[in-house]
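#data-curation
PF: Archiving a pair of folding outputs for the training set. Convention for this channel: one message per protein, sequence first, structure tokens after, nothing in between. First:
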Amino acid sequence: MSSSRFTKLLLLVLSAFFLMVVSPENSTQAQVIDLDLSGIVIDPEGENGLTPANAARYVDAVRRGQAFWNARVLGYSNTLPQDVQSQLPGGLVILISNQEIGGGVLGFAGVDATTIVNIVRGTIFNTRQVAVGTTAIFTLDDDFIRQSTDDEITDVAIHEFGHALGIGTLWDDNGLLGQIGPGPIQYLGAHARRAFAIEAGVAGLATTGFVPIEQQGGPGTALAHWDDDSPTFNSIARDNRIELMTGFFIPNTERFISRTSLASLVDLHYVVRGFNEDELIEFPRVLASRLNPQSSMTASQRLTGFSSNPFGANESLGASSAAKRRRATVNIYKKRRK
């Protein structure tokens, strides 16, 4: 058997194995995030791809990241214009791959700019553009996968899936960025501003004028992540914690997901558990069983270290991760503690 045929056969076996192990038994439950594992390159010797063992670790970590968001994001909101709703397939397909990237880059992810159907565009009352991703890409560096722990790969996957859903990558396309007076560009989405006011403890205010976003780092980081200088997103000085969707990796810190990040997905026209569940569009492939994902989630899908309330404020993620992004994709680097 040729090496190419062996690799393809092995990938099919791995995909089938993880489908059996991770997916709920006898369930037709639809998921917002679906994975395409055809981009994973396997080499029995591990020289021109991942060994079967490392490929298995990669797939497992990616599926944990998928489960994290599928337990929280239920689907698309019926507040989307009808012309947009009619174009939606019901979920987001992410192509998972690996390669030797080099240059200190650990990986990249984001909306797939090469696919015609990657962004469904529409307008609300002809004044606001709407962009909803339907396909995305996710690639990690082979050496990073080989040298990292399962928790580290999982945390990177959770961060990158957030970008694939649109956090940072589709803010501008949805009119969620702007200036207030002469100040810098900030995040202006209403749902995230309300969540931020609560988390920041702004006395007497139900909302804030903006949510601070990263201004440093250049293309790939600036305007695509929460500001890691904000004490709401960076509490390292108090308890050594930093928010999941900030743009820099700081070693030996604990990462958490904020309600502001979850609320940003509501601004991006998703239905998010604990926020706007009454707005869920019932696609043929979206079943009511999704409203209680924990009941059908296998043990291998559950992530440890979370509050029993899936939307408890500032959920801990365990290992650390972070990323920088380009306009269409996200680059992942490491950065020393400030």
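PF: Second:
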Amino acid sequence: MDRRTFNDFRGLIYDLSGISLSENKETLVSCRVNKRMRALDIKSADDYLNYVQDDDNSSEIVHLLDAISTNVTHFFRESGHFDFLKAKVSDWASNGQRRLRIWSAASSSGEEPYSIAISVLEALRGKNVDVKILATDISTRMLKIAEEGIYEGKTLEKVTAAHREKYFTRIKTPHGAPRKYRAKPLLRNMIVFERLNLSQPPFPMHGPFDIIFCRNVMIYFDKEVKSRLLADMYRLLRSDGYLMVGHAESLTGLISDFKIVGPSVYEKDLILHGTRKTQKARVERTQIQQARPDLSQTQRSASGCYSART
């Protein structure tokens, strides 16, 4: 792949997903594009680029983004967030809240939303609360894994033995093969998985969400995409809702109405409601409306099958 073709792929991937690839990612892009070329028996990167850009091959766009996306995750990653989640859920339930809506915005292969579900159930301790978790990702391949909810034993290393016994069922595997476990229906029924492109707000969900997990994905976006994303997550959160971002991420330097309340934990600031909203917030909302894209069919599907109001 020559430099011109690489730059064409960079531009295409950014336009499609908001993922900003630096110039030193040429080898990564080349390797992952080559996988798709082999699958389709296409001989040159230029021919594959033309194939992707052909309107008749729109499904290949999904495969390309699946190949480019980096999916590194594990159960209870950055565990402090789950401690915070349990404390908040316990407090809300003790104060009479009987409805809980959580969004795992970049759910990858499902470890994060299942960790959320376990944490919520442990915090509720049998209290009757209506809980729904929306789990979204741009990768259809990862979403399929997440929906199946099947994981090798080594993937569950961060899950305690008691929780593994309580929330997972060991499934039969061939002799000598790694142990595998499947999330029990108790967990799977709490979660709705949908494909969503985080670079294209405003999103079709209604809100309000109590908590949004958007972790370790904004590092792939430039400032403009991050600002649009943050503005729409702010819209979708309840008045005192919380946003979790990755420990390597920060909202510093971004136009944002969130206030920090803990390590990589932000709250929707009540002071900014009503007549005291800042000029920056008004600018952000105007930018979102100007950049409003048409909803894809998959986004319409997400809107139809999940509403945070239900």
